[in-house]
Write the structure tokens for this entry.
Amino acid sequence: MSQEVIRGIALPPAAQPGDPLARVDTPSLALDLTAFEANLRAMQAWADRHEVALRPHAKAHKCPQIALRQVALGARGICCQKVSEALPFVAAGIRDIHISNEVVGAAKMTLLGQLARAAKISVCVDNAQNLAQLSAAMVQAGAEIDVLVEVDVGQGRCGVSDDATVLALAQQARALPGLNFAGLQAYHGSVQHYRTREERATVSRQAARIAASYAQLLRESGIACDTITGGGTGSVEFDAASGVYTELQAGSYAFMDGDYGANEWGGPLNFKNSLFLLSTVMSAPTPDRVVLDAGLKSASAECGPPAVYGESGLTCTAINDEHSVVRVEPGATAPALGSVLRLVPAHVDPTFNLHDGLVVFKDGVVQDIWEISARGFSR
């Protein structure tokens, strides 16, 4: 084959505006615009009702188009989990970003200083040495950055867990050049997936009490603690009502997934599935089994295989690199070869990170393709 012919071969886009979903090339990640916008409005209304700021977590989607819509509806800013992840969002015009993580390493410090000159950036700390490194980096960059002391409210991951260290870090942050002490990071990730609503309520309230005790310690020591940021989709009902948090960091609420779907809800917040993995039936080897063209390279499966949406009697029983096996239950209708199914990913965040673009649709018709431009930005 000639080089001219090879150079003329290009991968076409998965879809064009106006295409029906059935014509989307698969596997493709797709967003139901109607459900998505309803989820955004519901969460913003919940935050407004409780007079707490919403700072959605962009690690869930890595898509500036989504973040811009959240901010337009009233979000204070966004969270990112890594320094590099913030780059596409700053480039898109987001000007208030909390790096909800500790940042260590010379290259990351340099990048953080550059970002802090372009936008309002905050970052977590739980170590005095890290504070000194941050200060030196900001002085070198001619920038300032907000720092929040991360406290462990029960997850057992990052964060300090004693009064003396919390107080010492806050005092050090106030004293060092280039740093502004802004408050506390108090996130409990595990509670988001406790299955019963009662258990999530109990543990979330315990976390809020721990955060409140540290804030009181600081205030009694003459240190303002203006920000207490944390919370997530599974606990936000209780986080907002606690009166402790000033910011909510929920992210998955905009999309939902299979793991959140396994939670008991029943409260005032019931978010809808808006994110789907479109996948085509590529094989129908037996009457009780079909095989789809989406696998582990299209959907994260550490929380289980994806679920078939809107079709009774179809269960995804196995997922491999480029295949998903679907069992057709007795009495159910097997989907035809070439038909496109909607799958609900088990875990939103890593699934977004497997895709370059998001097919946005409304009433079954493609409206746009949004770039997932922070995909792979994990440094």
Q: What stands out?
A: The first helix runs from residue 3 to 7. The radius of gyration is 23 Å.
